[in-house]
Amino acid sequence: MFRSVAPPRPVRTRRMPAVLAAALAAVLAAAAPATAAAPEPEQTERSAPRLDPAAPHGAWAGYSTGKSATQSRIPAQIPAGSVAGTDVSGHQGEVDWPAAVAAGARFAYVKATEGSGFRSDSYRSQYDGALAAGLVRGAYHFALPDRSSGAQQANFFVDNGGMWAPDGRTLPGVLDIEHNPYGETCYGLDPAAMSGWLADFSNTYHARTGRFPAIYTTASWWNTCTGGNPDFAANNPLWVARYAPEIGELPAGWNFHSFWQHNDTGPLPGGQDVFNGDLAQLGQFAG
Fold it and tell me: Which listed residue (45, 52, 114, 176) is catalytic?
């Protein structure tokens, strides 16, 4: 369930012993051949879905496509005391938000940006449409840590739709960090460097908005690419992706989640999500 937490403090990542960091870096480097980074998209979203082997049950990375073979794994009903919602991107185009509300949605997350060069053309209509239909809504950013600094991407996100307001209708921004759709799983960063990048994004977003961003990830990606870093759980709400009837293991550090994406197809447009609390707690979380 939604819990109150102590006043936020900037993330200070653990210093990993040099020998351990070098060993982990060597293992990750051996696992995948080095490839040149693809040019960062500026005006187009990824045109084809890509299976993410690091995500449970082969989740699609970065966005929801509505082309999943896992619909049978949708929980028969959302957990008691939870609230249903959805996440969308340019792949959903124009969303029928009143129909989503009729199907049970009470919140929505909308993709705003990716890296430091891509702005979703669908963001504004989706974001405003969700609000007009009565949903609590927020924005998310797809991280590309190999392209620019965490601070640069956090500022780009805030400047292009990721701002938060204490109005009870705006959810804190989300950092979507998962399997790299363009190359090496961990974006060529060792766990110490990845943790530093995440802290840079998180602290910059907090400085700009007064809220720490939620983090969307999978347990497998997080535990591999951050070395199981537990330090972010104190400040950053968790949005965990696992396509299964139960939520399963959480990423290192978190002992509860705020959101759970349990499928990428179902009665709602885009991703099928639940908030770990009731409607009143969702309002508290937003505002």
Answer: 176
